[in-house]
Amino acid sequence: MMLPLEFRRLGTRDYAATVAEMRDWTCARGSQTRDEIWFLEHAPVYTQGVSCSESVRAGDSEIPLLKSDRGGQITYHGPGQLVAYLLLDLRRLGLGVRQLVSLIEASLITLLDEFGLDAVTKPGAPGVYVDGEKIAALGLRVRSGCCYHGLSLNVDGNLDPFSRINPCGFSGLRVTSMKAQGLAVTVGDAADTLEEILRVRLSAEMAHKI
Fold first, then answer.
1. How many CB atoms lie within 10 A of CB 193?
2. In what order do the strands lie in the sheet with 5-13?
């Protein structure tokens, strides 16, 4: 049995409109609705998770700050960053939230390894790191057994806006990108690789469920 999964490439999308679309899609889905993963980039925006009280330090007033319904703290999205939103029926996959987080992190580590980067996770600090610097962040929302939101991977974008926040709530945390690590990789390249990795890993989860 093949996993009912569709990958969509959406280009550059407005953050608030995309979150509303994900939420509406998730609320309307049924038990037979196929899962989808959306690959996209956002125009520059800071976002706060549901429990976040931190804001942006002075200097980036032109970049909007939006409250989001995802988990996690404050982060930045912008061009050159691959965003992947995972709209998955966790019940059908037989996955818990912690298992999904581990799957996402492992997929990102595999992706970075394929491009020659040694990436790791950190206990108590979700995401993926290279030499102690954060290269990918996670934030999820689960509603009635189905999730949305997902991950962001810094590919070749401007990292300066991260200096105006405590990324993911950690003071002094340095942020990196594939470009900063010396790689000439596009968002499209990263999306192609991540699609294959996620397709294999999620299909394996479905096979175990069956």
1. 18
2. 5-13, 35-42, 81-89, 146-154, 133-143, 125-130, 120-122
Q: How far apart are CA 199 and CA 180, in angstroms?
A: 28
Q: Check pLDDT > 70 for residue 52.
A: no
Catalytic residue, chosen from 52, 146, 147, 168, is 168
Residue at token pair 């290279």: 130
Q: Is 168 a catalytic residue?
A: yes
Side-chain-side CA neighbours of 169 within 13 Å: the count stands at 15
With vertex at residue 60, the alpha carbon angle to CA 59 and CA 66, rounded to the nearest 5 degrees, is 140
CATH code of 26's domain: 3.30.930.10
Provide the residue range defining the domain that includes 25: 5-205
Q: Which residues pair with 128 in a beta bridge?
A: 136
d(CA 76, CA 92): 32
Output the DSSP codes for 69-132: SSSS-EEEE-TTEEEEEEEEEHHHHT--HHHHHHHHHHHHHHHHHHTT---EEETTEEEEEETT
Give 153-187 pLDDT, tens digit per residue: 999 999 999 988 876 666 778 999 999 999 999 99
Rounded to whole angstroms, how far apart are CA atoms 39 and 150? 10
Q: Is residue 210 part of a domain?
A: no
Given the structure tokens 């994900």, which residue do they identify?
A: 22
Domain count, the chain: 1
Least confident of 60-69, 71-80, 150-159: 60-69
Model's pTM, two decimal places? 0.92
